[in-house]
Specification:
Blueprint lengths: L8 E5 L2 E12 L6 E7 L8 E7 L6 E4 L10 E12 L10 H37 L1 E2 L2 E2 L4 H29 L3 H29 L11 H13 L4 H13 L1 H8 L4
Antiparallel strand pairs: 1-2, 2-6, 3-4, 5-6, 7-8
Length: about 260
């Protein structure tokens, strides 16, 4: 969350930079062809970050493998690098521009994650509706019980609302309006994932014991969405960011400034 305080560093050398640092908790490293690395810039000023792109097989770039609770079929782990030479041509933007690039880059990424979460929720909701029509208990389909019908109505509306906001956010990015897109996307990353998670949870319970088995994929989706709660900005941090961007920096300063 404290991106401006990252400890990875870059040092200017002939023809490029030397990078030293680490970054844990990255998905799909073993599937990636390239990585993007953020470090402190060379000016020594807080928030003046550098950004580099490099092939995943760059000599000296070490991949650390970790086990994940979800993301079946994808790798999970981290990167380590010490005095890693990177040509100047691999730097993205100007020296010290990294913080701006970070926020713009992550708006795209957070919106993509929201879209994936909403699609997961929509799929789970269809599975739930089919289940209520076909599963019989006490002489008829369980869909006749209104307490099982009502979550479908609730989650359908919530997913559609989030989907509509996501389209607005995408249009803002297309226009280059990152200022107005930022609070909207941060809010979507928080609430869209929570909406999808609640939807999948309801569908899982509608399947009873089968929902807790590998006969359906709902258990896997619950674990994946719990990962999205954390990835690239936790739900709680995203909500704080909405307040900060909508009602002013003083709220952020209250939270993070150390009082002497």
């Amino acid at each position: 969350s404290n991106v401006s305080g990252i400890k990875s560093i870059s040092r200017k050398v002939d023809g490029g930079y030397e990078l030293t640092g680490a970054k844990r908790f990255n998905a799909r490293l073993e599937q990636a062809s390239h990585v993007i690395v953020f470090t402190q810039g060379t000016t020594g000023k807080k928030g003046k970050l550098n950004v580099f792109v490099m092939p995943i097989d760059t000599p000296g770039l070490v991949i650390e493998s970790l086990a994940a609770h979800g993301l079946t079929g994808n790798s999970y782990g981290g990167l380590k690098f010490e005095n890693l030479f990177v040509p100047e041509s691999h730097r993205i933007g100007a020296d010290g521009e990294g913080l701006r690039i970070f926020f713009e880059h992550f708006l795209y990424w957070r919106l993509m994650q929201t879209a994936a979460a909403l699609g997961t929720g929509e799929n789970a909701l269809q599975q739930m509706a089919d289940r209520l029509k076909t599963r019989e208990a006490f002489g008829g389909p369980i869909g006749r019980f209104t307490h099982l019908q009502q979550p479908i109505g609730q989650h359908t509306t919530e997913l559609k609302m989030a989907h509509a906001l996501a389209k607005v956010a995408a249009e803002l990015i297309d226009r280059g309006d990152y200022t107005n897109a930022r609070p909207l996307i941060c809010g979507l990353k928080a609430e869209g994932v929570e909406i999808a998670l609640n939807t999948v949870d309801a569908a899982t319970r509608a399947f009873g014991g089968e929902g807790y088995s590998n006969r359906v994929d709902l258990g896997d989706r619950l674990r994946d969405l719990n990962g999205l709660r954390i990835a690239d900005g936790t739900t709680d941090v995203m909500r704080m960011e909405v307040v900060r961007q909508t009602f002013g920096e003083e709220f952020w300063e209250m939270a993070v400034e150390v009082k002497q």
